[in-house]
Design brief:
alpha+beta, Nucleotidyltransferase, domain 5, Alpha-Beta Plaits, 2 domains, five-stranded mixed sheet, four-stranded antiparallel sheet
Length: 382
């Protein structure tokens, strides 16, 4: 079972304090009351009665107040401000003997420390009250005060409650609940829980309002559209002719743009020829061992390709023709091995190697292919 109290309401939102209790507990309370011949008018929580008593004490007006409700099964730690609960925690401790009262004081101290550490402050609480049977409350006043570092006294009287001679003071929270009901203050009542607001009703109102606005807008749109229909039909033919003419101009501009991009892609191919010469020179041994007769460079391209996402792009290689003579076959084999090991160079022999050159013993003729930027990236050879 759930009941709630509305704490704050804004134009579109509300802040509520909600409480829940098992239905079995409500059934048990109703059965006990019925067996005793008592009609149950309200079922609430003790902490709300405690908060009502604290908030209605003159010395607690407009400030936080502390109450420790010592019941039969333990105690409830309540901090309230102007009858509103700011903090509440229940701890099961069975008071009665001296030893159990020491345990009770220890648990009260732990609860206070836990709350102050979690909250980061003591909320400017200067004093508190004990709600219990008179002898227990007065016996624990000093110990609880020392444990909390506050002035804590037993509540013996209240300006708004007339206490009979045989009043059992551990029922103070119940008196606070009766005071809440008598004054008509908002309180939790599981015997007659509040109904949640009909959110669907507000939604239905909004839907109807939107539908009404849509109908008005549709009627206005139809009226305006009917008036402008004739003029729109008259200008439609003119716009179609202009669009047809503009389409031709658009295609012509796109063709010119593609041509320009094509030329720019060709112009962007700019090998660093000196770097390629330097990269070849780094592979050639001492001139006394290898003599170059011919060194030529050329661009080899597969054409300009166009992709929709990347635009124009070229696939270009640098072709290098190297011809000369070596002092012996071991030297030229070493040069060939270096070129084959170079990852950026693709080697091809232009003919079979013979012996008997004009100046040195072994003539050679190589064709090398590499990427346009490979010589620059490798820093002029290895």
């Amino acid at each position: 079972m759930i009941d709630f109290i509305e704490v704050d309401r804004q134009e579109t939102t509300s802040v509520v304090l909600a409480c829940a209790i098992p239905r079995e507990v409500l059934t048990r309370v109703s059965d006990v009351a019925e067996a005793a011949g008592v009609t149950v008018a309200s079922i609430s929580l003790r902490c709300f009665g405690t908060a009502k008593l604290l908030g209605s004490l003159p010395e607690n007006q407009g400030r936080n107040a502390l109450a420790i409700d010592l019941g039969a099964g333990g105690f409830e730690f309540v901090i309230a401000n102007d009858e509103s609960i700011g903090f509440a925690r229940g701890v099961e401790v069975l008071p009665g003997s001296e030893e159990s009262e020491e345990v009770l004081v220890t648990e009260i101290r732990r609860t206070w420390i836990s709350h102050t550490l979690a909250d980061g402050s003591n909320e400017q609480i200067e004093s508190g009250v004990l709600l219990a049977t008179s002898d227990v409350a007065h016996r624990l006043e000093l110990d609880v005060s020392r444990a909390l570092g506050l002035d804590v006294i037993a509540l013996d009287a209240h300006p708004m409650v007339r206490v009979p001679a045989d009043f059992d003071s551990d029922t103070w929270p119940l008196a606070g609940l009766l005071l809440t009901r008598f004054q008509g203050s908002a309180a939790i009542n599981f015997a007659a829980p509040r109904k949640a607001p009909d959110l669907q009703a507000r939604r239905r109102q909004r839907v109807l309002l939107v539908l009404g606005l849509v109908l008005v807008a549709a009627f206005g749109g139809w009226t305006l559209g009917n008036r402008s229909l004739s003029s729109t039909r008259g200008s439609n033919a003119d716009l179609a002719a202009k669009a047809k003419s503009a389409l031709k101009e658009y295609h012509r501009n796109r063709r010119d743009g593609f041509r320009l991009e094509h030329l720019e892609a060709w112009a962007a191919i700019d090998p660093d020829w000196l770097s390629h010469v330097e990269s070849i020179r780094s592979f050639i041994p001492d001139p006394s061992r290898v003599v170059l007769d011919d060194l030529s460079f050329a661009l080899v391209t597969g054409g300009i390709d166009h992709e929709k996402r990347t635009g124009f792009g070229e696939v270009v290689e640098v072709r290098m023709e190297i011809a000369g003579e070596s002092i012996d076959r071991a030297t030229i084999d070493g040069v060939r091995a270096q070129l084959v090991a170079e990852e950026t160079v693709r080697l091809k022999s232009n003919g079979s190697e013979k012996t008997g050159g004009r100046r040195l013993q072994v003539p050679f003729d190589f064709q090398l292919r590499t990427d346009v930027e490979s010589a620059t990236e490798s820093g002029g050879g290895s």
